[in-house]
Design goal:
two-stranded antiparallel ribbon, mainly alpha
């Protein structure tokens, strides 16, 4: 019986056997892939594992050296950590930089989630608002005669609203209104965040209640949230958010 050569044996193998054989050959080649470091041959995966372990041990050793200088009592150790020199060293270190970047990212994410949650919560109350179809209704009932002359204007007992064309309002009246109510009217997109912060600090600081609404916000309040603005039990922060 004649012996088969290696090539003949390969030809008679099934596809599955060939696949297994190629996998084994690949593993052998991968194990042989080594590189020299410090005169010693090390496997690639072993080298990466060694580097990671060495870096982790160096970090733990450095933390241990920092903690060695601190008192052993928990209370004293806590206040020792807050020493200005240690805080400054941490702030201007690479570790401190990463800490503040992570904190900023976390706060930014929380802010986005909070704003999105507020929007979804109040969305049901804002579905009827159509800014492109805004119509300011008058609160004055005007009675005319058959010739169109005004006989009587019923303005009610409280504040009233009377719509007037722009050309009938003095330029000085418009300028005075902007100067008193919203001096940055032409510089903000409808909400003056600086004014809101100033008003909040003044209110919570006990310096008195200040207004932070723009003319745009006041218009929206009077047109779409007049019921909440007139009620003593509704409005406030919720209306400001809307």
């Amino acid at each position: 019986m004649e012996k088969k050569t290696k090539s003949e044996k390969e030809a008679t193998k099934s596809p599955i056997s060939k696949l297994k054989s190629s996998v084994r050959e690949g593993r052998k080649k991968l194990k042989k892939s080594v590189f020299k470091k410090g005169g010693k041959e090390m496997n690639i995966y072993s080298s990466l594992s060694y580097k990671h372990r060495a870096k982790k041990e160096a970090k733990a050793r450095k933390n241990a050296e920092d903690l060695a200088d601190l008192p052993k009592e928990p209370v004293k150790r806590f206040f020792a950590r807050l020493h200005p020199k240690r805080v400054a060293k941490f702030v201007f270190s690479k570790r401190g930089l990463f800490f503040f970047l992570k904190a900023f990212a976390a706060l930014f994410l929380i802010g986005v989630i909070a704003i999105g949650g507020l929007f979804l919560y109040y969305k049901k109350d804002l579905e009827s608002i159509r800014l492109d179809e805004m119509k300011v209704s008058e609160s004055v009932n005007t009675y005319l005669d058959r010739n169109g002359n005004v006989l009587w204007e019923d303005r009610g007992d409280g504040d009233y609203r009377l719509v007037t064309d722009e050309e009938n309002i003095s330029k000085y009246m418009r300028q005075a209104t902007v100067a008193i109510e919203d001096r940055n009217f032409y510089n903000h997109p409808g909400v003056d965040f600086g004014a809101l912060i100033r008003a909040a600090l003044s209110t919570f600081g006990g310096k008195g209640v200040q207004g932070g609404s723009t003319l745009t916000q006041q218009l929206i309040k009077q047109v779409y949230f007049s019921d909440e603005a007139a009620s003593a039990n509704r409005g406030g922060i919720a209306r400001k958010i809307k």
